[in-house]
TrEMBL record:
Official protein name in the record: Phosphoinositide phospholipase C
GO molecular function, one term: phosphatidylinositol-4,5-bisphosphate phospholipase C activity
Gene Ontology biological-process annotations: lipid catabolic process; phosphatidylinositol metabolic process; phosphatidylinositol-mediated signaling; positive regulation of epithelial cell migration; release of sequestered calcium ion into cytosol
Record Pfam families: C2, PI-PLC-Y
Keywords of this entry: Hydrolase, Lipid degradation, Lipid metabolism
Location of the PI-PLC Y-box domain: 2-95
One Gene Ontology cellular component: ruffle membrane
Reactions catalysed: a 1,2-diacyl-sn-glycero-3-phospho-(1D-myo-inositol-4,5-bisphosphate) + H2O = 1D-myo-inositol 1,4,5-trisphosphate + a 1,2-diacyl-sn-glycerol + H(+)
Organism whose genome encodes this protein: Micrurus lemniscatus lemniscatus
PANTHER family on file: 1-PHOSPHATIDYLINOSITOL 4,5-BISPHOSPHATE PHOSPHODIESTERASE GAMMA-1 (PTHR10336:SF173), PHOSPHOINOSITIDE-SPECIFIC PHOSPHOLIPASE C FAMILY PROTEIN (PTHR10336)
Domain C2: 94-219
EC number(s) stated in the UniProt entry for this protein: 3.1.4.11
Top-rank lineage group of the source organism: Eukaryota
InterPro entries associated with the record: C2_dom, C2_domain_sf, PI-PLC_fam, PLC-like_Pdiesterase_TIM-brl, PLipase_C_Pinositol-sp_Y
Length: 315
């Protein structure tokens, strides 16, 4: 009954959010509301990983909001998609009867993505005790078990004002982009080679946009850090088109010199369709500007004719 809610401590919920019982728990949550809350032994108010509970359909996953950690940062990113209303619609694939949260072969109608990211630079990174920081960036995809992965840049020595990194492409293949997060976490390495947190930014993968992007950085509590940002380049390519694997998308940077003319034309057509999708807003804006300019020109001409007819040419 949708009017009843069952509450589970995290220790009990963890017995259901696994490969053996995950699908049954998801089916249970289609008929029953469930609430997950932290176990009482968390005396430090730390948080558990909410992702397995979310992907198994739990409607209310309670966290310790006073603790600034990765689970809370993902929670903030998830509910940003709902305009911070406190609600987020479950992805359509979670309402599919054959969907298994821990089996990517049950993803029907889902287009996997190949995401290429280059970390180019940063500016105005916060200081952490010392006057000068040695930053590096960790890029992580968090989602279903089969999508979890992380990579990191090299360390830049003694530059927190405007560090720049040697261009290096980080490649991520995301099978379930509807329920995956992309995280940028900036650390500094001290003289003892210990990692100290500086800043972070967390986003839903399905909300990403391709191109050169300035990523505003936030602190542990997901509050904006003044002027702090990363400069990144993002390429997003669907791995499947029209039910077939797209050979041009599996590795967007591969050498195509050996391709046949027909393959090259097909690849350019696909790339053109993706490029057109991202360029369309700019074309719409340019068209609106032209229409607005034409409107004001017509208005000025009518005003000029009117003043001349009245014999009052004050222009």
């Amino acid at each position: 009954c949708f009017r009843d809610m069952s509450s589970f401590p995290e220790t009990k919920a963890e017995k259901y959010v696994n490969k053996i019982k995950g699908k049954k728990f998801l089916q249970y949550n289609r008929l029953q509301l469930s609430r997950i809350y932290p176990k009482g032994q968390r005396l430090d108010s730390s948080n558990y990983d909410p992702l397995p509970m979310w992907i198994c359909g739990s409607q209310l996953v309670a966290l310790n909001f006073q603790t600034p950690d990765k689970p809370m940062q993902m929670n903030q990113a998830l509910f940003m998609s709902g305009g911070q209303s406190g609600f987020a619609l479950q992805p359509a694939n979670m309402r599919d009867d054959i969907f298994d949260p821990f089996d990517k072969n049950t993803l029907r109608g889902m287009v996997p993505l190949s995401i290429s990211i280059e970390i180019l630079g940063a500016r105005h990174l916060p200081k952490n005790g010392r006057g000068i920081v040695c930053p590096f960036v960790e890029v992580e995809v968090s989602g279903a078990d089969y999508d979890n992965t992380k990579q990191k840049t090299e360390m830049v020595v003694d530059n927190g004002l405007n560090p720049a990194w040697t261009p290096k492409t980080f490649q991520f293949h995301v099978s379930n982009p509807d329920f995956a997060f992309l995280r940028f976490v900036v650390y500094e390495e001290d003289m003892f080679s210990d990692q100290n947190f500086l800043a972070q930014a967390t986003f839903l993968v399905k909300g990403l946009k391709a191109g050169y992007r300035a990523v505003p950085l936030k602190n542990n509590y997901t509050e904006d850090l003044e002027l702090a940002s990363l400069l990144v380049k993002i390429d997003i390519i669907p791995l499947i088109e029209n039910g077939e694997i797209n050979p041009f998308a599996a590795s967007p940077f591969r050498d195509r010199s050996a391709d046949s003319p027909n393959q090259l034309l097909a690849g350019r057509a696909r790339e053109g369709s993706l490029e057109a999708r991202y360029q369309q807003p700019f074309e719409d804006f340019r068209t609106s500007q032209e229409q607005l300019s034409e409107h004001f020109d017509n208005r000025d001409r009518r005003f000029l004719r009117k003043t001349r007819v009245n014999g009052d040419n004050r222009l």
